[in-house]
Every structure is written in structure tokens, then in C-alpha cells.
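Convert to structure. Protein one:
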Amino acid sequence: MESTIKKVLVPIDFSDYSKSALKYAINFSKFFNAEIILIYVVEPVIYPLDFSMGQIAMPSFSTEWDQRAKEELDKLAKKEINSSVKTIIKTGKPFLEIIETAKEENIDLIIIATHGHTGVEHIIFGSTAEKVVRKAPCPVLTLREPIKGYNHKEENNKA
């Protein structure tokens, strides 16, 4: 049976969770001989109205922010992957940009970390991973933070 997984998209937000997902994706992609594509989404900050000045305070988005993000993403890719990898920087809502990129790049699998927010945190922040799972044009593998004190390799060796 021939592998149908040729392109893997890994969203990165530079958290330990997403770096862990990247490490998992590297091993996964080696098994399937798949290309890894990294994406970082710059989420615009919306400033409140400044009523004293009678105008809206709008952020000035420059290429500096995107360039800094690109440099950091390239540095992470070089450190972790040690080979040529495509990196993509987008601005917008993370889940929308991840889904759109998956369509544009004909991605076969998205490997994404979930931060494990529950309760009020989940209501306030939502879950990018959850939204990606619901709307992605391809399968999505979600990874949560490792359980502290549990080593699955040691547990498997006991059996």
C-alpha cells in the first residue's frame, strides 16, 4: 500500500506545545517520507477606540513583524529539522489561515498541538485546534501536552 501522506502542515506558535508537535511531526514525516510545511499566524491586535482623540487607534502593520516571525520560524526549522523546509507566515485568525493554507498547499495531514484549556479558559480563548479539526479539508492529528511523570516508552517496555 502506497503512502498518501506527502505533505504535513505543522502550525507553530512557539509554545512548548507546538514545538513538541513539531518533533512528533518530524518523526511522523520520516516514516511517510513526507514534506513538512511550517506555518505561523500573526494575529492582529485590535485596539479600542480612542474617544478623547475622536479616532480609532489602528496598529501599523509593517513587514518588520512578518520578517521577525519568518526569522524565528526559519531558526526553529533549522534547529529541529536540519533540512530544507517550507515556512509560511500569514496574518489573520489562526484557525482560518491554517485551514486556508491546507487548501492552498494541498496538505494531506495537519499535526497541531492543543494547549488543553478547559472551563472558563476554553470559553474565553476557544481552541484553535478544535476549530481546525472541525473545518480542515484534510485529516488532523491533535497532540496534547505530555502527562508529567509518564514515559510511554518505559510503559511499553514493561509489557
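Protein two, convert as well:
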Amino acid sequence: MKRFYFIATLLLFSAITFAQTDKGRFTVSGRSSIDFSYSNTRFKGGSVSSDTETGDTYNFNIAPAFGYFVFNDFAVTLQTAYAISDGNTYNQMSQFGIIPGAIYYIPTGSIVRPFAQVGGGYMNINTKVPLESGGKATHSFNGYTLAGGMGVAFFVKENIAIELSGQYATVKTSFSGDSSIKMNLDGFSGSIGFSLFF
């Protein structure tokens, strides 16, 4: 009899968990990371041409998002992203983006569910570059970003999941003062976050 109740409880919990990604439901999530990462930044155009590896850069990222499940396990999302970078490079950088996208939770029959996500949208980047005379000059770049990644969601409660993910992103921007000057960024990142389903 105890075994029956145990199995019934597991089945009920699983059914409640899987219902969280059904069509017509919503999700709110927040992911962040603090890490040291490798990236490759390229400036091209005008009188500028450089290709700089910044392996010891400190990064902080936060990316809140809102989603709506248009099909079972498949949601369209709207994400905002903010990031700052600093370290042993000659400049400091901050990024802000608005990124529509989509996420798909793979049905596995358990409380651990892999997912895949893609997105693309607007990106603004501000850099602070030291001046020879002292102080720093701020340069603004605007353009677009494309990103994709995979992760795993651990449903710790019936409507709460902890998510571990990794993604690759590319950013293409132009200098606001001279559109012939481009800044392109490519890199991998990892993050941890949580999602609420309702």
C-alpha cells in the first residue's frame, strides 16, 4: 500500500510539473552569471583595424525574460539583457539588448528537462576608452545580436525550475558617430537562473 501511495504521488507531481509548459501558460525567468571568459572583439572601418583577444575579462550578465506558451512545451519570449565587462583590457564595456526569441522544453517524463532556445534583436554597446590626456571617452555602438543555446531545467517545485544553460552569441554593431566603423563580438557564455510558470 505504501508503494502505491508513493507511485501515485510521483505520478501526480510529474503531471503537475509537465502541465507548467502547456499551451496558454506563462513563464517569467531570470538568468545571470559572473565569470571570467574568453571573447574575441574586432574593430573595423575608418582608420581603425584591430582583432583583440580578451581572455582575462571579468563579466557580469543578467537577463530577465517573459514567455508565453503558444504550443505545449514551446514558448515565444521577450528578453532584456544587460552586461558589463572589465579586466585587463584597455577599455570597459557595457551592453544592453532587447531580444525576442523562442524556447522549447523537451518532454522527458521526469522533473529534469533539457531545453533549447534561440533569439535575435537590438543591441547597444558603450565602451569607455582611456585618453592620453587623462580620463575616458565613451563611444556608443548600435546593431543586432543573434544567439542560441541549450540547457537543463530542474523542476524543484511544481511551478519553479532552476536552469543551467550555455549559449553562443554574435553581435554586429556600428559606431554611432561613423557607421563605417564596426564592432563585432562573438563568444560563449554560461549562466544559472530560475523560471516561474503560471
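The chain has one domain: 2-197. Residues 4-17 have pLDDT under 50 and may be disordered.
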